[in-house]
Specification:
single chain; alpha/beta; Rossmann fold; 7 strands; globular; binds S-adenosylmethionine
């Protein structure tokens, strides 16, 4: 990470991290969109899968419970959320590798993953680091691989346009709200990007993008 580069933790401020799970569960009804993401990521037994920016591990745990016969890694840059994720997985006896690392400098060799899945992380990165991250995801995926991304996107109705005003000023979500994510995914090398599903939430409209190598 470059000097002066800001790292944005799960709820923007480190002291708010303990509130992340309750807010997502009760405020954003994360179960709905995370379950949809897991069920539509074309997961198969034996695959190697990365949850990028895994945070407190809720999605990572759902992936492993959905299909225990995959090799699963959860990467995040914040040791505090990784500690929460590890305890949650240990409590239910799941075998997941947790790693500290930055999304735009992935510590993996080329063509090493079948699937990369990421939820609500990309809007934490500057435009430059979003593109670097998508290039890194493209690099670590096998040629048959897929990138399944869920994050804020360009609102498609008046209600979502209004709630998006707040999130577009917070963190680095402006690129998302302006609809730049699919363009960046193409720039990183992905041949086909499918906007598979939209979810309205109290913080804005989430879009699920399926990107093919
Ligand atoms: C809003 S949380 C989402 C967590 C989880 N994926 C979810 O859906 O609940 C965003 C996460 O991205 C992580 N993050 C932010 N910048 C990152 C970076 N450059 N590299 C890796 N993780 C990063 C934060 O630490 C945080 O855990």
């Amino acid at each position: 990470m470059k000097k002066n580069e800001k790292y944005i933790p799960a709820l923007n401020q480190n002291w708010l991290t303990p509130l992340y799970d309750p807010l997502l569960k009760w405020g954003m009804r994360e179960e709905t969109f995370k379950r949809y993401l897991v069920e539509h990521s074309h997961l198969e037994a034996g695959q190697k899968v990365l949850d990028l920016g895994c945070g407190t591990g809720t999605l990572t745990i759902q992936i492993k419970q959905f299909l225990p016969q995959i090799e699963l890694f959860g990467l995040d840059g914040d040791p505090a959320v990784l500690q929460i994720a590890r305890s949650k997985a240990d409590a239910v006896g799941l075998d997941i590798e947790w790693e500290k690392g930055l999304a735009y400098e992935l510590p993996y060799p080329p063509a090493s993953y079948d699937r990369v899945i990421s939820s609500l992380m990309i809007h934490h990165l500057t435009a430059q680091n979003k593109l670097k991250t998508f290039c890194e995801v493209f690099r670590v995926l096998k040629p048959s691989g897929e990138f399944h991304l869920l994050d804020f996107g360009k609102p498609t109705n008046l209600g979502m346009r209004l709630v998006s005003i707040l999130i577009s000023r917070l963190e680095e979500a402006g690129d998302n709200i302006r609809g730049l994510i699919p363009i960046m995914l193409h720039q990183a090398g992905f041949s086909e990007i499918i906007e598979s599903k939209h979810f309205n939430t109290v913080f804005g409209e989430l879009i699920y993008y399926q990107s093919l190598y």
